[in-house]
Amino acid sequence: MYLNLFLTLSAIFVCDAKLPRLRQHTEPNEVADTLKQNLQVAQRLQIEVKSEKTSRIVNQYRARHRRDVFDSKSYESGLTWAHSERLDGIGDVVLRWVNSESSITFRLEAKTRGYVGLGFNSARNMRGADLVVAWVDDRNGNAQVLDCHGPEYDDLAVADEVQNYELISGYQNETHTTVEFRRQLDTCDKQDFVIGEDTVQLLWALGPEGSDGELPKHVKSGSKALRLLQPVAKPQVPLKSWDVRLNNLTIPNNMATLFWCKIFRAPELSKKHHIVGYQPIIDSRPIKNKRVLEKDSSSPVHHMVLYECAEDPDKQLWNEWSEGDGFFGPNRPSQWATCVTPIAAWAIGSKGEYLPENVGIPLGEKGGVSYYMLEVHYDNKALHEVLDSSGIRVHYTPVLRAHDAALLGAGVGVSALHVIPPKQREYRTVGICSPECTENTLPDHGINIVSVLLHAHGIARKISLKHIRGTQELPKISEENSYDVHYQQSRIVPGGRRFMKGDTLITECTYDSTSRDKPILGGYSASQEMCLSFVLYYPRTQLAGCYSMTPVKEFFETFGVKEFYGLSMMQVENIFLSSGNLENLPPQLEFDMQKKYSEETAVQGDDQGVGLMKELVIREPSEFRNKTFMAHLNEMPWSEPLLTEQIEKTLYKGMHMTFCKKRDDTWGAPIQIQSYPTYKELESNVTTDNSCHYKSVRLPSVTKGNGSSTITLNVATILAVCAAILISR
Ligand SMILES: *[C@@H]1O[C@H](CO)[C@@H](O)[C@H](O)[C@H]1NC(C)=O
Ligand SMILES: *[C@@H]1O[C@H](CO)[C@@H](O)[C@H](O)[C@H]1NC(C)=O
Ligand SMILES: *[C@@H]1O[C@H](CO)[C@@H](O)[C@H](O)[C@H]1NC(C)=O
Ligand SMILES: *[C@@H]1O[C@H](CO)[C@@H](O)[C@H](O)[C@H]1NC(C)=O
Ligand SMILES: *[C@@H]1O[C@H](CO)[C@@H](O)[C@H](O)[C@H]1NC(C)=O
């Protein structure tokens, strides 16, 4: 990925200003004439010797903009920045921003005396990206911003026809260039990115010393995924914290995937408190004297979930567990299956969360001891040997919030039956939370959904949480159309959402598996897939988890398999139901195969049935006879669109086996096989172009000082800059 990133970004910000085409209808004639002249000048100059014309144009340009006195600091906006991020992770490139309903203002502080470039895209490259380049002229201290874009099929930057960035201020000191600029969230310019609720890949690049107005190849670049419009939630009151972490667990270097569980005793509190947030504690130390792949020194911790356990009278047993080291996931004591209510769900890329100000998750409300289970998933593909003391820092407060909240897990049950064929550009899967489940477990007035964490792995591109009432779809509760597994934060549901008894919740994931040659199976490992949503809601109910998966018989039939040697479909189904996170089954579903199977998975790690897929040998139909199911799956003609469309449709719109798990580890509704609900889809009312009239360079000034207009770009000067850039290449 990094190589790829480097390659694609290496071409960034060469600002190959292919000369902008004119858009007479949007510009006053006078300006258009200037544009034309500039265009002609630039075109004529193209023929001349490069170096000569470069310096001449640049000098002309500089002379035109020289000012005798330039107190750049007076142009600073003085805004209060709601957000601040180190784009490079170490602080050489810091982006601060604040947005209003319609516009967003950035402050970019970069350790460079050359140019600094910022890009917005849905992918981690500059194809089709919206790019903005800024610099401060070394001679006169004038700052400039230039609106560019990356063409769809080429890794270069081209100046936009319409400039939509307004420079507010810019200056440089001995080490840094600092610029402030502003734009509309939706500029109504096809060459700009619409900044919305989805995750944005922020690309950045730093030019070499003195690269002002000429844009040679950058010296440093990178990208970071962010949601720019995410509201900030930080509690004001002082908080207490409780560290829930492992204690020097040795992660062996021969396991690519591992999950570990440990019980914790909550701090003893005399009254109810509220958990209002959490942060990850990542503490993974390579074991000395062992060869460590230096390249990848990152922690193998991939995700962590903290669960509340149901009350159990046998406190002594739980106390002993809370003092122990914990257990390898599949080997944990069966009583731990009562730890099903998620409290905090962290995944790689998240800095943690603070809950919205009206809700808190109760802690210590029983006025005594209560127990929690931390589940840590390691993705140790680099096969490091590490000592790990990672976990979660839980923030809580005695100042109670208005509502007791809880988390509900929903989506596709994690199992190998969640198959995504390779070579698919958009392949969708769904997990259903059934109306029977919500009917049986929710209060009469329903619940209020506050926020949602959407979770899947590397090939997921979109995740949405749909809401069905009766036969009518309601607006989506949450959606991410540009999912990045390296950036996971909860999404506030604006205004909240009332979810009633008997409503259906559907988590839909869309995957892009074009980079894969073999089918991807569901599982916890980073190379496997998931499709989950963690829903934060109030008031608290008994419902803790609500999932679905394809029934086993239908699943295998979809892939053309009727019968295996040695095991009936019913037996295979029981194995699937008794592994993975659906393990807490009623006794009648348990049978001795489960024991044998869980011992095997203990050796292989936690595989949610992948091992079984490799062992099932097909008996019927005869054309696949004696092949393992996995071999059959791998050999299917996945590039046949008719085949994959049929499979997608059958698994999506076909039968679903639904699970409804309560906090006390009982079932809120029986396991059921049901068909996909029939409902009237919500018509997505397409935003008409009527609302889009913003096309000019100028925005109302937000500058504190009075001088902003003097450094606001006009189109003619931009063209001059573009010409200079063109020529300097
Ligand atoms: C230069 O500017 C940067 C960014 O504003 C700031 O962090 C740094 O301290 C400044 N350095 C000096 C020497 O003023
Ligand atoms: C883990 O072990 C190291 C020494 O090997 C020690 O410094 C550290 O405190 C231990 N961590 C915990 C959480 O006990
Ligand atoms: C399948 O395997 C069985 C025994 O393992 C063998 O008797 C049979 O001939 C094989 N069938 C095919 C089609 O290869
Ligand atoms: C979209 O449709 C819903 C109901 O159908 C309506 O309430 C809403 O105002 C519409 N939004 C726009 C932007 O037209
Ligand atoms: C800006 O202009 C207003 C009046 O137009 C004046 O009162 C104020 O002092 C000016 N501020 C600066 C920083 O020049």
What distinguishing features does this structure have?
single chain; 729 residues; alpha+beta; Immunoglobulin-like; Jelly Rolls; seven-stranded mixed beta sheet; globular; disordered C terminus; binds 2-acetamido-2-deoxy-beta-D-glucopyranose
The CATH topology of the largest domain corresponds to: Jelly Rolls
Q: Tally the helices: what do you get?
A: 13
Characterize the overall form: globular
Helix/strand-derived category reads alpha+beta
The major β-sheet equals:
7 strands, mixed
The radius of gyration is 29 Å
What would you say this structure looks like, in words?
The protein is α+β, with helices and mostly antiparallel strands and 729 residues long. The strands form 8 sheets. Strands 31-28-33-26-34-37-38 form a 7-stranded mixed sheet. It has a 6-stranded antiparallel sheet with strand order 7-6-5-4-10-11. Helix 2 runs parallel beside helix 13 (715-728) and helix 3 packs antiparallel against helix 13 (715-728). It is globular, with a radius of gyration of 29 Å. Bound molecules: 2-acetamido-2-deoxy-beta-D-glucopyranose (NAG) (5 copies).
Task: Briefly characterize the structure.
This protein is an alpha+beta fold. It folds into 3 domains: 67-226, Cellobiose dehydrogenase, cytochrome domain (Immunoglobulin-like, Sandwich), CATH 2.60.40; 231-404, Jelly Rolls, CATH 2.60.120; 408-559 and 636-682, Sandwich (Jelly Rolls).
Question: Secondary structure elements and their pairing?
Answer:
Layout: H1 2-10, H2 29-46, H3 50-65, E1 83-86, E2 93-99, E3 103-110, E4 116-121, E5 130-136, E6 143-149, E7 158-159, E8 166-172, E9 177-184, E10 200-206, E11 220-226, E12 240-245, E13 249-251, E14 257-265, E15 273-281, E16 284-286, E17 301-309, H4 315-323, E18 327-328, E19 339-347, E20 353-354, E21 359-363, E22 371-379, E23 386-388, E24 391-397, E25 403-404, E26 406-412, E27 427-433, H5 435-441, E28 447-456, E29 460-469, E30 472-480, E31 491-499, E32 504-511, E33 531-538, E34 543-549, H6 552-558, E35 563-564, H7 569-577, H8 592-604, H9 610-615, E36 618-620, H10 629-635, H11 641-653, E37 655-662, E38 667-675, H12 708-711, H13 715-728
Parallel strand pairs: 21-25, 26-34
Antiparallel strand pairs: 1-2, 2-3, 3-9, 4-5, 4-10, 5-6, 6-7, 8-9, 10-11, 12-24, 13-23, 14-18, 14-22, 15-20, 15-21, 15-24, 16-23, 17-19, 17-22, 26-33, 27-32, 28-31, 28-33, 29-30, 29-32, 34-37, 35-36, 37-38
The structure holds 2-acetamido-2-deoxy-beta-D-glucopyranose (5 copies).
